[in-house]
Amino acid sequence: MANILSKGLAQLHPKLRTNGMGIGNNHRRISLGFLQPSKRNPLVRKYNRRRRNAPDQQSFRSLGEDFGSTIAREDHLDVVDEEGGELELEDGGELSRTVSLPSRVSETPDVHSEVDWILEEHERRYSSAQHSDDEDIQHDQYEFQDRRYSYGEQEQPDLLEYGDFMRRVRRQLDQDVNRRQPRPSFVSVTSRGSVPNIYASTKDKEDYKHEVVTFKSEAKVLASYSIPLILTFLLEQMFPLICSLTVGHLGKNELAAVSLASMTTNITLAVFEGISTSLDTLCPQAFGAGNYKGVGIHLQRCIAFSMVVFMPFALIWYYSEYFLGFIVQDQILTHLTAKFLRIAILGAPAYIVFENLKRFLQAQGIFDAGIYVLLVCAPLNVLTSYTLVWNSKIGMGYIGAPIAMVLNFWLMLILLLLYILYVDGLQCWGGFSKKAFTHWKALSELAVPGIIMLEAEDLSYEILTLFSSYFGISYLAAQSAVSTTVTLTYMIPFAVGISSSTRIANFVGARRPECAKIASEVSISCSFFVGLFNCSVLIGCRNLIANIYSKDAEVVHLITELMPLVGVAEIFDSLNAIAGSCLRGQGMQSIGGIVNLVVYYLLAIPLGMVLGWTFDMKLFGLWIGIGTGMFLIGTIEGYLVLFPNWNRILERAEMRKEAEEADDDLSDEYFSSSDSDDEEEPTERTLLLHR
C-alpha cells in the first residue's frame, strides 16, 4: 500500500509533492500556499521579500520557498532530478534526496541564532516522520542504505533515535561553524537522518565547546592572557604618577591640588570601571556561546549606560569648587582642584569607552591590544605633560597637566579603535543597534556589585590615608607611599583575575561547567603564587621603596617597618582580587559585592580604628584591621569560586541569553527588507513558521 501511495504521489506536480502538510514523509506535502494568511500575524507583517528585480543575494534568511522544498540554482547545483533523484554539489559531494539551501554565511556572522528556525523546523518534521509505520519506512522507495555521517569520519546508521539525531545535528553545526573554511556556505539538509553541514567564512576562533582542557593547559593559557594585561595595568597606573611628578615642582599648593584632583578622579572613574566589569560576564559568555554579534551589543549597551551615569558626575566635577568647600577650607586649593576637574570632564568619556573596548577585546581572547596602545601613549604622555607644563614657549603651567591627561585619554581611545578596525576584533561588531538602550536593568544587576567590589577596597585605602593624618605628618607620608606601592602591586593579581574571569565566562557560555571548574581551580592556585611574589618584592625591596618616596629618616623608618605586614596582607589581597574576578566570570558578582561591603565596613575598618587609636598601634593597627578583612574576603570568595552551584550558574546564563533573544523573535534583522518597504504576500515558509 505504501508503494502504491508513493508511486502515485511521485506523479504529482513537484510543488504539491514537496510543500505543505506532511503525509508521512518530510518531502511529500500538500501546499498551503492557496490559504490567505492573516496580516495581523506579526511574522507575516515582519517578513518582507526583496523586489523581484533586486540583485540575487539570497541567503537562508530570505528563502522564498518552504524549507522542505526542492531548490535548485544553476550556480550551486549541477544535476537535479525532480522525480526524487539525487542532487550533486559542485564540490563533489553527492547526497540523495537532499535540499541545498544556498547561503552566504559571511553576511550573517551570528550563524547560531539565525539557523535556529531551520533546526526547529527540521526537528518538528523529523519527529512527525518518525511516527509513521515501520513497514512503510522499510519499503520507502526513496530510502537509501549507505549514508555516511561526516562527523568523526564514522559510518552511522540511517535511522537514528530522535534525541541522538538532534544532538548530532547541533554538534555538527557547532563543529562546522567553528571550522570556518573560507568559502561560501552550502546548507544541506536531507529528508531523514543526515546532518546539516555549514562552512562559514569567518576568522578562526577557539572552539570552547570541544576544547580539551587540563590543569596544565589552562595554566599556560592563563599565563599567556595575564602577562599583557599586567603590563597594560602597570602602564595605566603610571599616568597619575607622572602628573603628580610634573606638577609637584610648581609649588605645594599645586601638588596638593593635583593629589586631591587625582583622588577624586580615581574614585569616580572606579565607578565606571566597575560598570565595565559587567562585560567580564556578558561578553565572554556570549562569545563562548557563539553569539558573536551579541558581544558587540553588550559593548554598546554598557557604553550607553555608562554615559548616562556619568552625566551627574560631570556636573559634580564642574561645580566641584562648591562641593569641596564643605571638606577643604583652603580656597586656593579648592579653586585649583576645580580647574583640574573641569578640564578632566572632556577626557572622562574617552577613558570610559577605552575601558569597555578592552573588555570587548578580552572576551575574544585579544589581550595584547592594550599593551601596544600604552607602549605608544605612555612615552607620549611624559613628553606632552612636560611640554604643556614646563615648555618656555607653549607651556601653560598647572593647567597643562589636565590638558595632557585629556589628550592622552583620547589618543588611547583612537589607537585602540584603529587596532580593532585594521588589526583584530572587528568580527564581533555587528553595527550600531537600538538594543543598546534595552535591558539596562539586567546590566545594572551585574554592574552595581562590580562597582561595590572595586570601590569598597579603593575607598578603604583612602579612609586609611585619611585616618593616618591624625597620627602626624610622618605617618601620613608613610601611609601615602605604602598605599601608592600597594596600588601598583595590586595590578598584577587584578590582571590575572580578569584573564580568569574571561576564561570562566567563555566556558559558562559554551555550557561546559567541567572546564570552568578547572579554570577556577587554576586561578585560585595562581593567586597564592602571585601573592607570594608581591610579598617577596615588598619585603625584599622595602629599603629601596622607602628611599624612592622620601629622604626623611622617620618616614623611611616607618615605611621599612610597615612593609613586612603589608606584604603578608598582599597574599590575601591577591586571593581577594582573583577570587572576585572569578565570581564575575561565573556571573555571581552580587555575592562578591555583599561580602566586600560587609567585611570591609563592618569589620575591617572598625577593627583597624580600634587597634590604631585605642591600643595605640597607629599604622600597624590600621593595616592589621584591613589585612584581616582581606583574609576573610579572600577565604569566603575562594570557597564560593571552588564550590559553586554550576547548575544555577548555567541557568542564570541561559536566562540572560533568553532575555536577549526575546527581543529578536520578531526583529527585522532576520528578514531582509532593505530593498523594499512595501509589504508583499507572505510565502509558504512564513505561513509554515507561523503554523
From TrEMBL:
Keywords: Membrane, Transmembrane, Transmembrane helix
MF GO annotations: antiporter activity; xenobiotic transmembrane transporter activity
GO CC term, one of those recorded: membrane
Membrane topology category: Multi-pass membrane protein
InterPro entries (UniProt xref): MATE_euk (IPR045069), MATE_fam (IPR002528)
Biological processes annotated in GO: xenobiotic detoxification by transmembrane export across the plasma membrane
Region annotation Disordered: where it falls in the sequence: 659-691
Pfam families to which the protein is assigned, alphabetical: MatE
TM region(s), chain numbering: 302-320, 332-354, 366-386, 398-422, 594-614, 620-642
Localization, UniProt: Membrane
Protein family per UniProt: Belongs to the multi antimicrobial extrusion (MATE) (TC 2.A.66.1) family.
Name of the featured protein: LADA_0F12024g1_1
Native organism: Lachancea dasiensis
